[in-house]
Structures are given as C-alpha cells and as structure tokens.
Design goal:
Blueprint lengths: L2 E6 L5 H12 L3 E3 H9 L3 H8 L1 H17 L5 E3 L11 H7 E8 L1 H8 L13 H19 L2 E5 L4 H17 L1
Parallel strand pairs: 1-3, 1-4, 2-3, 4-5
Helix pairs in contact: 2-4, 3-4, 4-5
Length: 173
C-alpha cells in the first residue's frame, strides 16, 4: 500500500501538513500519536509516566503493523520517535512514500517554546535538549525520507505545493 507518511521532529508541522495534504489529495488522515492516545484513553505524557517510554514505543509498533494491513490509501503522521525504533524501520518503509519535514533549530525552538506536550523536553535547558535530539534524529529521518522539505522558511501554502509536486514526481518513478 502506498500511503503518504509524514515524519519529522516535534514541532515540524506533521499534523498540520498531514491534514492539509489529506484534504488536497482527498485521502483520510491518521495521526499515529492521536490514534494511540484515543485507544489507550491516556495522553502520551501519562503513558510515559505510568508505563515508561518502551511501553509507548511498543504501542507505536503495533499501530504501524495495523496500518500496513489497511488497504485504503491514507496520509499518516508519525510521532517524532517512531522512526527511531529499529523494529519500525521495515514497517515504515512498507507503509509508503515517506516525507520528512525538516525544521531548523530556530524554527523548532520557536514552535516548541511553550509546549509541555513532550516529556523528552522536560526540565532545564530545552534548547540543549532540542539541539541534542535534533542531532540524533536528523540522520535517521534522512535515511527514511523519499522526499525532504524544510519547514518554517516559506508560507504554508507554498510548502504544501512543494510537497505535492515532489510526491507527484516521486510516485511517477
């Protein structure tokens, strides 16, 4: 199945971009994180606190496997950590065309400034944590990317047009 899969760092715009692409391409939209939150009836933060990160990552893997079985083409936004789990590599590739939304440190810092959603950014020196996570995650995201675009530098409509043009060109190959 050739779903459109959106990956990127927290704050890169995965959900917003995914929703717009789903409207433009007339495809259903799935946010993997929201799917898990709904199924568990707990926030990501609550799952991390109660059961630990490995438990949440296992839920992501189960959800990815389920999406592979879904034959209706969709736009799927993955949580920022899903591509980092080795066991997810084949599942993500199997899902379809992967679009990496790459945000600069400045863009992400600004967008995550008041966010309390992600437990990985808790504590002092958020900038250092963002920098460290970005350095760790960027090479992994690039490895998955069939298409890569930079967020936060051009108007949203132009970004969407760029992604749609690249998707069309990629899927013609």
């Amino acid at each position: 199945m050739n779903h459109v899969v959106i990956i990127g760092f927290m704050g890169s715009g995965k959900t917003r971009v995914g929703k717009q692409l789903s409207r433009d391409l007339e495809l259903p939209f799935i946010d993997l994180e929201k799917l898990i939150v709904k199924k568990m009836n707990l926030s990501v933060r609550e799952m991390f606190e109660r059961f630990g990160e490995p438990f949440y990552r296992a839920l992501e893997t189960v959800a990815l496997k389920e999406l592979i079985k879904d034959t209706e083409r969709k736009v799927i936004s993955l949580g920022a950590g899903a591509p980092l789990q080795e066991q997810n590599e084949n599942y993500i590739r199997e899902l379809g065309t992967v679009v990496y939304l790459k945000g600069s440190l400045e863009t992400l810092r600004k967008r995550l400034e008041n966010s309390r959603k992600d437990p990985l950014l808790d504590g002092d020196d958020r900038d250092e944590k963002i920098k460290k996570l970005l350095k760790q995650r960027d090479p992994v995201y690039k490895k998955f990317a069939d298409i890569q675009v930079v967020t936060g530098v051009k108007p949203f409509e132009e970004l969407i047009r760029e992604i749609e043009d690249k998707l069309q060109a990629y899927e013609k190959k």
